[in-house]
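Field reference: sequence -> structure
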Amino acid sequence: MVLNPFGVIEPLKDRLNPLDYIRQAHLVRDIEVIAEGLVRPESGNGAHFAEMAKSMIAAVIEVIMTRRAEADRNLITVMDLLFSAGFEKTLTEWAGAPETFGTRPAAAAATFLAAGENERGAIKTTIKKAFDWARSDELRSFLSTSTCSLENLFEGRADLFMVVPLDQVDAQAVFLRLLTNIILGMAVRLEGAKKPKKNVLLVLDEFVRLGRMEKLINIANVAAGCGIEALFITQDKGQIESVYGKGDTASIVGSCVTTRIFGLGRAEFETANWAANALGDQTVLTRSKQSAAKFGESRKTSIAEQRQKLMTADQILEMKTGKMLLLAGSKPPALVDAIVSHRHPAYRGKLDRNPMVL
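Structure field:
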């Protein structure tokens, strides 16, 4: 499956409607995954507006999934309704008819309508940020229907490639976050009932750029039980802490079977200090000879034990290119040579070509 909404190199073929993830029997549970993927968490006063925006988006999705024809149950319909000129009039109808539109959408509508003008404006701005990525013609076509199923990932029938031009990586951060959240949610909701024969490898390069994702923390703790192997990649440990805080960062890093440290920048002292502590200490024996008390007497030798770091932070920062520190479970740490797959003869022949240039 090649998700290529921008038609890079070849015309658009596969399409994906995120609302296909939602099961009618689990509306609230599945809609929450979509809404959380669309709205990035904010700090300070923005946290309130983010929660309100998420609640409003969830309400609109629920109405679309329960009141619209199947052909209209897609993210484009949700977006068009949210940005329609008569949206507040529509919310008034919802608030007055919970038996028709559902108690949750009615409650969300009433809460929004009761807010002050400035608060409404802030919520609308947050909703706009959640959908800015999807307003191009290419994305409208891509999100309108599905020609592939993500369930094939877990049934071993497909690999998934995302194609995003370099100049669109930041602009499409919400899109990448949404798709990642859906895949994570799909893995968690299997709950071992349909664990795949082979684990799904989820490579999360620079994952902190997607913002905090609660499903990712769940995956870090239960990945082995739900058929996922996750590979978390980041420039330094401080980046994770800035998004997830020290407690959840410790949970994510601590859940990893292996930790690999290489290519640190000269100024990444915090990560180097953490790595030095993770490597542990070694015992060093020092021998010293004392001066003889009297002429002709032999000098006495004393032996002392001292603890010192296996590697200091400076030594870690000065590691040569191609060297990697490997921490694997309860095994002793190791300093190893990094393998560059496209150069190493044992791996080079196993690499498939980029599906975009076949």
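Note: The CA atoms of residues 98 and 286 lie 79 Å apart.
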